[in-house]
Design brief:
255 residues, alpha/beta, TIM Barrel, five-stranded parallel sheet, three-stranded parallel sheet
């Protein structure tokens, strides 16, 4: 089992014992990039800070700025700590509004003001995630007009590098409370076996059964440990959205 997951390395990383059966060869992920994204800015997301740092991993946290510091959501100080570790802070609208329900000036306020709020905290904000994954021509254009370089959806992944459209980035299926390590492992392995690409993971809560859209900490920690080791010894690349897309940081735009 260890040979399959760790290749020729003599280092050991905590790995669940219920992984798929080993093969005769190690998997090298030289053509695969993984991105860990967290939606909403939930307070329980902060628990992953240390395990990300310990494994030299950086994630993208999409924040609903209107909720920052309120009950159940991360504070400005916590967001700044994540940012100082090298994690990315992205936008997720002002009030987590489904973008099919707002038009015109209201749509622009949800997207532009959210980015301005995050920039006021001192963050370089280039990435956006559509709440509930909804997007249409008008919302995509407003995301561009507000100064974002990319936007993530919630389905149809994996994505290619470079992506077909940076404003409709495709993600792997939602991580929910019954998603185990083996499934996340398999998503990455299948991307590599199919020629490589970009596996964008979407997380929400990090807790034990507190929400349908939750991953328990032990499962996430095991996955982070595995990703960190594969990055170190087997060629896997783990990057933020901005690290993959790049582009100049655009000035803030008023609503």
């Amino acid at each position: 089992m260890a040979l399959f997951l760790l290749g020729c390395s003599v280092n050991t990383v905590p790995i669940p014992t219920t992984l798929p059966s080993p093969t005769k060869q190690s998997i090298y992920y030289s053509n695969t990039t993984v991105t860990l994204t967290f939606d909403d800015g939930d307070a329980d997301n902060y628990i992953v800070r240390d395990v990300l740092k310990e494994n030299d991993l950086r994630a993208t946290f999409y924040v609903v700025s209107g909720f920052t510091g309120t009950e159940g959501f991360m504070t400005e100080e916590q967001l700044r700590g994540l940012y100082e570790d090298g994690n990315e802070i992205g936008g997720h609208t002002l009030s987590h509004t489904k973008l099919s329900e707002v038009r015109g000036a209201d749509l622009r306020k949800e997207i532009c003001q959210d980015r301005l709020n995050l920039m006021a905290y001192g963050f370089e904000v280039t990435s956006f995630a559509y709440p509930f994954g909804f997007h249409d021509e008008e919302s995509r254009q407003v995301v561009k007009d507000c100064g974002y370089n990319n936007a993530r959806t919630v389905a149809d992944g994996p994505e290619g590098i470079p992506p077909g459209n940076p404003f409709t980035l495709k993600a792997m299926p939602y991580i929910v409370q019954d998603t185990k390590f083996q499934k996340m492992f398999r998503y990455v392995m299948e991307v590599e076996q199919n020629g490589g690409g970009w596996a964008i993971f979407v997380f929400h809560h990090v807790c034990d059964g507190c929400d349908q859209y939750a991953v328990d900490y032990d499962t996430f920690s095991n996955f982070a440990n595995w990703l960190g080791h594969q990055q170190q010894v087997n060629g896997l690349k783990v990057k933020t959205i901005d690290e993959v897309i790049g582009g100049e940081i655009q000035p803030g735009v008023g609503p």
